[in-house]
Write a structure and sequence with these properties.
It is built from ten helices and three strands. It is mainly α and 356 residues long. It has one domain. It has a three-stranded antiparallel β-sheet, with no helix packed on it. It starts with a strand and ends in an 11-residue tail after the last helix.
Amino acid sequence: MNMVICPDCKMRVIPKADGSCPSCGAKLKGRARAAAPARVAPAADRRQPVATRPRARRKVLHYGEVLGRAWEIIWKFKILWLFGILSSCGGNYSSSSNSYRTTSGELPPGLQEWMERFTALLKNPGFVAGLVAVALIYLAAVVFLGYVGSIGLIRGGYQAERGAKQLKFGELFKGSLPYFWRVFGMNFLVIFILLVLLIVPMICMIGAANLLYPLFCVWAFVFIVLALGVGMVLTFATPAIVIENLGISKGWKRGWDLVLDNFGAILVMTLIMFAIGLGVGIVLIAPIVVALYPAVMAIQAGSTDLSQFNTAGIIVLIYLPVYLLVNGILTAYSWSVWTLTFLRLARPVRAKASNA
């Protein structure tokens, strides 16, 4: 039955079986008029929904729980310490050199003789070519072991969190190889772009360094902030590639979205890990500084006695295994913290998860 307009109550109604209005009860037969069809806006006038990235519900990150759980994992699965040592091989270490003037203006005789021999060897093309080859092989080995170690730490932390009873070095190492090129490629591209953004403006400002010095300071500040932000994204893009088996672009986007949705929580965790790393780093480097201090002071005083150098070298060599072990434990703990942070904050995705 068609819809009509009641002449009494002016309502659009469907008449009852006896022909009366269901609203007011008035007789509609012969009195009602057909209701006009509802106007539908033309297709051109309809607003199309705008596709936007859904905002994730912010999750609460319990920092103490994550830090404590990460320590439990690396203490229970001490094989991760070895992967931490491998991962620390690929770390970037900054060193500062100080120049000291001696009263005599010369190095001790032993060092002076060694420097002269080394300078003479540099004139031999064969020696230089061999030195370059050894340096390239060493660099390739360091990069490979560093990234494989980091991937192994992520996989080990993920498996431990899923309830693994045992972690084997061979299984973790072999299982980390398929992710190497993706993780290395992402880091290489990001570092290359950052270097271009740093070097090109510096070259452009060389000609007018005095005039553009304020602008360079502003750009340096912006670059530092940009590099820190990129580092945060890389920290979460790497677990995304390993745990969720994503490609480079999707892994980067995953890390970007995660940092964007949880920036406050990630920033706090970053500051916590920076404080932990700074404290442990100072404790680690202190014995080396103490061992080298007498030798440095001997050079500054113009001493020609090599006993201070020999003693410092022996102490550093004895301390080196301890340094590598503690630094490896710190690296394993750091990656365990970031892996757990990723698992706590990450949203489920439809991508095929890896069998990490």
